[in-house]
Structure formats: C-alpha cells, structure tokens
Design goal:
447 residues, mainly alpha
Length: 447
C-alpha cells in the first residue's frame, strides 16, 4: 500500500508576519460585520469591514464610516484592540502570553521578532519586547488619566474615562481613530494646551521607536546614546521644527485655518499639524481647507514617516537621513557616508535606496490607478495614497467617497505600508544568500 507523503510547509519570518497580519485583519473584519458592532444593529458590508479592520490593524486611521457615530461600544473596543495589536505587532502580543504562561520562546519565534522589530540581531530581542510592553502600558495609562481628567470637563466622567483610554491607545500607536464624531478628530481642541501637548507627546513617543525610548530611559545610567538614537532624535526634531515653520508661514493668512485663530492657537495648531503627518492621523485643522503648498509639504512628511521599531509607517526617518547624507557626501566628493563620526556600510545605503524607491513606486502606482477610478483632483489622490502608505490616516475628504476598487487599493496600500516594502518583498520572494562570486567592474556615465 502506497503511503502519502506530505511535504512540511516551512514559512520564513516575513511570510509569517504577512499571514499573521492578514489573519488579524480578517478576524477583525468578521467582528465588525456583526450587528452588535454597529449602533443601528445593521451589518457593515464586507469591503467596509475589511477596510476598517485594515486601517485599525495597520494603525492608519482612514475611515469610510464615522467611528464615533456608526460603531457601538463593542465595535469601538474591537477597533481599539486591533489598534493595540497592530501597533505593537501580533508577535509582541504573542510573546506577552508566552511570558505570562512561562512558555519558552523558540529560536523561530526570536527570528520572527527580529524581523518584526526590524533588528539586525536576535541578541536581547526578548528583553526589548519586555520593555516595549512595559513602556506601552505606562505611557498609555498616564495619557489616559490626563485625557480623562481633561475630558471630564466636557462630558460625564465615565464617558471621559472611556474616551481617554481609546484616544491614548489610538494616538500612542499612531492611529488616527477618534470618537468625537462627524469626522472632526481634535478640531474642537485646536487651542487646548492639554489636549495638544499630551497628544503630541503620545504621537512622538510612539513614532520614535522603542529602541530610542529605551536609550533615553537608560541615559542616566549609561550617559550615552546609540548612533541610531542620535540619528532618529536629530532628524525627528529637525522635521518637526521645519514643518511647524512651513505650515505657520503658508497658513498664517488662510482664513479657513490659522488666520481666524489667536496666537496661542496658531502656534499649537502649527506644531500639531507638523507632528501628526508623522503617521498619527489626528488633526486640529481642516486638512482639506489648507493651502496646496501646505498639503504637498504634508505629503512629504507622511512619506518620510516615523522611525524604525515604532508604531508608525513611512520610509522611516533613518532612511531619509541616509539618503540626504549620501547626497551631501557625493556633492562633497566623499566616498564614505559619516554620521556622528561613524561610517555607514554600503549595505545600509543600498537598503535605504531600495526602501525609498519601492515606496515611491508604490505611491505613484496607487495614485495613477486611483486617478482613473476616483473623481478627485490629483493632489487629493496623491495625498490619500501617501497617507495610506505611511499609515497616517489624514485625508482631504476622499476616503468616504472611495469606489469599491478604491477601497481595495487603499486597503492593500495600508497593509503594505504597515509591514514595510522589504518585508513584503521578502515574503513574496525570499531573499537569497550572498553571492559566491563578483562580476568584473563596469562603468556607465551618470548625470
């Protein structure tokens, strides 16, 4: 009698990440389709449910139905849990259960965690995950308390506590979901110091990345920062300050945004709109009413995004810094790229170029297709495409008007942006080992 032999399927870490996120999105969509998830008791369509679950799991914030008015408390809690799992990563949550039940973390689990956290080595990966979980709980808890106390002025304390927790989770994980209703986001708190300051601290903390947070917390002990932390902190600070100045200048005389506000609100809103394109998705000004120059500048900020090992998307601040540094080095006639007196290997530069080019190709392709399927200006479509890729969640009003094809395309773009272009590329075609030979050097004319 012949025996059937089944070949064991072996999945690479990138493939496991892709499948894991896809399964979480599917589960979330099925839960959001339940009648109990909506206030009206109606079932959300499958496409809209998948779109919402993708947006939550990929910590984006683009919505086709208003979170505050359409979903019931059950549906909102599902979205909040999807944001938390998606922001920290499903492998991080799985590691939490392993630690709680004292289960040994296998070598393959560590490899997947290494891929998920974008680390170069497995050394200390479990220790990093512990810090990720601890920092997340502490930061979100403190923010939730402050939000609750502030919102208690405007609503009953029970509702304020619920709103405080939801928005603390949403903002720290750089998602753009809110419960204020009518797609208003934080526009009613445009000049509120508490709401602005706490929201920006959450967004920046989540966007810096857990490695940088760990470095900052341990600074008093070691009195030094890693090269990665120095690059992330300097680039983040520069982008926020430049963004604030640019938005303040371009919107200062715009009667629909800054012109009608007092000086305090002008400064707060300029800072907030500079911080939020770094994949957060909340806004205190009407994005659609801003000048085209400001909107295009925000597209650039969204494309750059947050930092590695964070809850945000985009090509990442380190990639942007390496690209700019490579250009400056070439202009100066230098063959090496030096950052803070450290020389970067060519492999890092090639990786940065690859990530940026893949991201650029994706955004351009999505914008071109949407310009055919959607009835909107090209800048609006480009804004939406970049927002989806950068897992930002800001919109100029196109999301609610997307066609069926548009929703599917934007959902895929959010998925690709959250996982990262390289991870997705490795999952579709696993990377090969190093070449055992080199071809003779050739020369072509450039420029």
């Amino acid at each position: 009698m012949n025996k059937l032999h089944f070949k064991k399927i072996s999945l690479s870490p990138p493939q496991i990440l892709v499948i894991g996120f896809a399964l979480i999105i599917l589960l979330g969509a099925l839960l959001l389709m339940l009648p109990i998830s909506s206030k009206s008791g109606e079932s959300l369509s499958f496409v809209d449910a998948v779109f919402t679950a993708t947006s939550a799991t990929c910590v984006t914030g683009l919505v086709v139905v208003d979170t505050g008015t359409y979903f019931s408390t059950f549906g909102q809690i599902v979205i909040m849990l999807l944001i938390q799992v998606g922001g920290l990563g499903f492998m991080t949550m799985a590691t939490l259960f392993s630690l709680v039940f004292k289960r040994k973390i296998s070598l393959k689990d560590r490899l997947i965690l290494q891929e998920a956290m974008n680390q170069n080595t497995m050394e200390g990966i479990v220790r990093l995950i512990r810090k990720v979980l601890m920092y997340s709980v502490i930061i979100e808890s403190i923010a939730a308390v402050i939000f609750s106390l502030r919102l208690a002025v405007d609503m009953p304390f029970g509702k304020a506590a619920y709103f405080g927790l939801f928005h603390a989770v949403s903002l720290f994980n750089n998602a753009g979901f809110d419960l204020f209703g009518e797609f208003r986001s934080l526009t009613q708190y445009v000049g509120d110091p508490v709401m602005n300051l706490v929201s920006m601290v959450l967004i920046i903390s989540g966007g810096l990345g857990f490695i940088v947070l760990s470095d900052l917390i341990d600074y008093r002990k070691h009195r030094k920062l890693s090269l990665h932390s120095k690059v992330v902190l300097s680039t983040t600070t520069a982008l926020i300050l430049i963004g604030t100045l640019v938005i303040f200048i371009f919107e200062f005389t715009n009667s629909k945004t800054l012109a009608s506000l007092d000086w305090g609100a002008k400064i707060w809103s300029s800072f907030f709109q500079s911080v939020t394109p770094r994949t957060a998705g909340a806004n205190t000004l009407d994005i659609g009413a801003m000048r085209q120059a400001s909107q295009f500048f925000m597209i650039i900020l969204m494309f750059i995004g947050a930092s590695p090992s964070s809850t945000g998307g985009g090509i990442k601040t380190t990639t942007f810094t390496i690209l700019v540094g490579a250009v400056i080095s070439m202009i100066r006639g230098r063959t090496d790229l030096d950052l803070f007196r450290y020389r970067l290997a060519q492999e890092r530069i090639f990786k940065a170029v690859t990530i940026a080019m893949l991201a650029l190709f994706l955004v351009i392709a999505v914008a071109m297709v949407l310009s055919t399927t959607e009835d909107a200006s090209f800048l609006t479509i480009l804004f939406e495409s970049t927002s989806a890729f950068g897992t930002v969640g800001l919109s100029m009003g196109l999301t609610g008007k997307l066609t069926l094809i548009g929703k599917v395309i934007i959902s895929f773009t959010m998925f690709a942006g959250r996982l990262g272009m390289l991870t997705l590329a490795y999952a579709l075609g696993p990377k090969k080992g190093k070449d055992l030979y080199r071809h003779p050097e050739g020369k072509i004319i450039i420029g």
